[in-house]
Amino acid sequence: YKATGFPTQLNMGMTWNRALVHQMGCITAKEARALGYTNVYAPILDVARDQRWGRLEEVYGEDPYLTARLGVEMTRGIQENGAAATAKHFAVYSANKGAREGLARTDPQVSPREVRDVLLYPFEKVIKEAGLMGVMSSYNDYDGIPVSGSSYWLIEILRNRFGFKGYVVTFRPPDNIIIYLRELVKENRIPIDTINSRVKDILSVKFRLGLFDEPYVKDAKKSAELVNNTKHQEVALQASRESIVLLKNNGNILPLDKSNKKIAVIGPNATNVGYAHAHYGPLMSESVSILQGI
After folding, report:
1. What is the model's pTM?
2. Dist. CA 201–CA 52, nearest whole Å
3. Core-most of 139, 244, 255, 293, by most CB within 10 Å?
4. Which of helix, strand or coil describes residue 30?
């Protein structure tokens, strides 16, 4: 659970720094492989449409071009360093009614033109320009059809139109799903050729990553030295600084006058270090509170 902690993807979008995002991808992949992971659930290529949405901090922003350019760099950085990038969420995920989340990921009211020009644009660019190896199918439906069970979305659009040649995963499939697949094959409701094709996609990525030659971490001590090292922390600090956006500076209060002897640090997060430990980030890495930082 220890690794270099970077700013949220929304923060990374605020840097407008393609080279920095590429560097983040490189570091993420190196540390992932050092820890035994071969797949990284990044980049998130959803485009923000409503600021009330509960997963807004996970996207690069509301511009499909920015999302595509940074997504390409993140994917290249990850895959150049021996891990597969799995982009999320395909497709039409970030446009729920009234920005609802949770169990309300259904029936997004989005026109076909907006789907094509805004929500699908980043996926097409990342697949064609960076050779994306993995995709997570989204949890929602579109026009009444669940995307995760749609040949239109996962075959016709993703593979035939965009040229995707990797694997598709879903979020936390049940462990006993193989039992149902076997039954469906026996009943001739799913052709065995379909199963073989999907297995081929997975094996192809494993071969490209060299997992059949070197599947395991060889040197645990070396891994411990690599993960969250000083150089990686410096890059994360640079990313944090570049991601800061100053909306107002009334009366030129910033930068603070050095003649001030005291600063009031107020609020529940003043001494809380949990802010740095997100659900999708390193949970055991050391962090400092805002008060300590000041």
Report:
1. 0.92
2. 37
3. 139
4. helix
Q: pLDDT (tens digit, 9 = 90+) per residue, 120-142?
A: 999 999 999 999 999 999 988 89
Return the CA Rg of the chain: 21
Say which residue the tokens 């080279």 belong to.
Answer: 19
Q: Which residues sit opposite 44 in a β-bridge?
A: 88
Within 13 Å, how many C-alpha atoms sit on residue 9's CB side?
Answer: 28
Work out whether the CA dihedral 134, 137, 138, 139 comes out positive or negative. Answer: negative
Cα separation, 70 vs 17, whole angstroms: 8
pLDDT digits (tens, 9 = 90+) for 173-188: 677 888 988 999 999 9
In terms of C-beta density within 10 A (0-12 exposed, 13-18 middle, 19 or more buried), how is residue 262 classed? exposed
140 close to 147: Cβ distance less than 8 angstroms: yes
